[in-house]
Amino acid sequence: MDVQKAARAAGAAGERRGYEHAKRALDIFGSCVLLVITALPAAIIAVLTKLDDPGPVLFKQTRVGRYGRHFTIYKFRTMVADAEKLQREMDKYNEVGGAYFKMKDDPRVTRVGRWLRKLSLDEIPQFINVLTGDMSLVGPRPLPITGYENEDWYVEKVTVPPGMTGLWQISGRSDLSGEEAAALDLQYVRNRSMLFDLKLLLATVPALIRRKGAA
Question: Which of 119, 160, 163, 166 has its CA 20 to 30 A from that of 134?
Answer without folding.
Answer: 119
